[in-house]
Structures are given as structure tokens and as C-alpha cells.
């Protein structure tokens, strides 16, 4: 019996992915839920588990291929490692026999398939240097496109004779990257290893790299930080190094630069932006250029929320097994205000305005790799406890790098809390295609006039950035006033006022 392995759900707005790494090869035995390969989209990395136990009989989509949702990736023959699995090694055998048969022939290393809409890439890192012995399918370098990182394996065993495109070079989809001379290095691997040991006097790590394929993002991070594979302790399956492992290992110490008279360049470090970071920068700028973005401000006296929270936080945590924070109050206050001003919860689609009769609240979360925005779905229908639990779970997933595409798609409005970092006031940028985002800030005690007297109150500045194409100034101000009123008298939320 044959089971198909297909591309899993990638999210509403994601239409394609690139095969980053296969962790199994045809003929390998696989178990249920064992990781087969890793896909990369323009937002996240997606792991593909095995849907059944058996033998990987065929890989349909090779590394570097661009695939659509539900596309066929591979075939698994269920049961014992027989039948089709026996044919797999035969299919791979000619590749291994070519090197000694041709002896000394040159093989070009070309840019692999980058995907339909990708026309160029940048050579990010070379993991081999000229003169190094390489094995067939051993990783030579890594390319970066505006969507994903692409690994380039060696097409044959031999010696890396020439590197045509050095690091930092921009290449098109059909460019030549390097040249491998077959046979010389592949015929005497033991001697080559001995020579390398005598020259480098370093630890013997190639075997480990062949046996366990590290995450592509981890390889890139190690290269950027100048870390060797043996300097990082892997926490993934079979000791596989993940991106967070590289972050924990820290950067390797750098030798101090020689001082130069009246020249600060020796104290500077120039690092080329990754293609992914360039894409993020471009999209944020596109949001500014496309939307008629405007920000309106107000401030809220947080005494009411703080008093209610202090009064009930112990009983709340005892009953619901989660702490009562400020975020649930803001989510509920925004849901309340969005019902009165629905255009802030809408989006533009061509010449149409799409009004959402639900609230999927995006909550910005800081992680080691940057800011992510998981979504609390149907937040307007959920209780304080349900919202707090979901935010806590999504926040933990975000910090652990385990958020799925589905958990970051479909938001209709976003809350960003810059106050946790000490921000007193800011103008948040829209998260397209959404038309509104609320910025929370630091709670700071300030003198306020209350009933003709000056008193000290815990105040927070609120900022609403909105798309002026569909949200008028009156609607934006009304929304922010309703949020302010709900926060200053949280009992209004319970009475739907």
C-alpha cells in the first residue's frame, strides 16, 4: 500500500513554499510523525511529518523545488522495507558511480530552481573552499532569495576546483556557481581526511555533519556568527542543531582589529541585509506608501484597571490557572470599540470595503528572532480567562519559534505593546491589509487635575494608527475614546456600554 506525502496547510495568504531540506532519502525506513523534510515560505519554516510508517519509496519534489499547497512531495510504501524500497538504491547508484568512471571530468555547479517568481539570488555563505574534497550531495553553499534560503548540494564527488560566484554575489536563476573536478578527491577520501587533519589540526566533524542534517536557518546563523558545528549543542531530533541553539551558543570571539589613525572604519561592522530582511523592509515601506496612514493619540487613567486587577488577580489565577494581565482588558476594550466603529475592523480589496463581522485580534509578541503577531481568533466572543490563556500559549510558542502559519494569519486588528520595553509614546505602523493598530505604552505616574485638584495617577498614552482611506478622523477619535472609557471604567465592558 502506498501513502502520499503532500504539502500541509501554509496559511491563507501563502500560495507557495520551497523545499529546503530532505532529512530522508529513497529507501529509508520512516515512522509515523517522523520528520521527512522542511519547507520554507516567505514567513515561516514548516516541517512535514510522515503520515504513515514504512519506506520512503520516491521523492517527487527535490530540494529547491517550489511547490503549492497540497502538492505531492513523496510516496511512502507502508509495511516492511521491501517492494519499492529495494528499487530506491538502484536509482541513486549511477550518481555514485559517475565520479570514478569519468575520472577527472569537470562538473558545473549551477543555481538550483528558485521558484516561478524568483529571478535572482545572493550567494550568502560558502561552506567549502577551493581545494576541499566534497562528497555527492554534500552542501556547498547557501543562497538567499527574497523569500527563502536555498541550499546548494554538490552534484558529484570530487574536489572543488573553482568558485565562480563568491559570497555577496548576486546571481540569476541559470548562473554557474562553481566547478568540481570528479574523481581526484572522491577516489581517496581517507588520504584527504588525513591531509586535512595534518593541516588544520581540528576536530573531526564531517561525519557528524553527514549523519545529522541541521536546520537551514541554524546553518546560516552559525555562518553569520562564525561558529563551528562542534561549538553548538543541538536540541533537535538526533542532535540536530536548531536556530535557537545557535543563539544560546553566542558569537565566537573576534580578533581585535588593528588600530588606524583617524579612521573609525576599523571599529565598524558592515553586515549585508538578508534577502528576507530586505523583503520585510520593503513591505513595511509599501504599507506606508499604499495606505493613507495617520495616527491619533489619547491617554487613559489606568487606576480602574489596576484596582480591579489587584482586587481579583489571586482569585482569577486560582480559578482559571492563568494570571490576569492588562492585555485581556485591552483586547476586550478594542472589541467593544470595534463594534461601534466597524470601519477600523475592515479592509480594502480593490474598490470594495470588506467589513468583518468578527474580531481576530493580532497581538504583537517579541521573540529572540524578532516581532511576530499571532492571532486570537473570535476574540469578541471570548472571556477574559480564555483570552489570557490563549495569549500566554501563543506568546510561549512565539518565543520557542513554534508558531504555525495558521496561528499568524487572518488578523483583522492588531495591538502592539511597546510599553513592555519602556516606550512612552510611538506611532505604530499598520499590518496590511488591516486598517487599524493600537499602540500601548508604558504606565507612568503623572500629575493630573481631577475634580479641581492635582493628583498623581498612573497614565498611559494610547496611539491608534489607521488607514484614512476608509477610516475618517471622527471614527478614529471615537474608537480611541471608547477604548479610553472602557479602560478607565472597566465595569462598562461588563454592561456593554
Automatic annotation (TrEMBL):
Compositional bias annotation for Basic and acidic residues: 207-247
> Which residues constitute the signal peptide according to the record?
none
According to the UniProt entry, its GO molecular function terms are: dihydrolipoyllysine-residue succinyltransferase activity
Residue limits of the Lipoyl-binding domain? 2-77, 106-181
Could you tell me which SUPFAM superfamilies the record lists for this protein? CoA-dependent acyltransferases (SSF52777), Peripheral subunit-binding domain of 2-oxo acid dehydrogenase complex (SSF47005), Single hybrid motif (SSF51230)
State the PROSITE patterns in the record.
Answer: BIOTINYL_LIPOYL (PS50968), PSBD (PS51826)
What is the name attached to this protein's record? Answer: Dihydrolipoyllysine-residue succinyltransferase component of 2-oxoglutarate dehydrogenase complex
Query: What is the scientific name of the source organism?
Result: Paracoccus homiensis
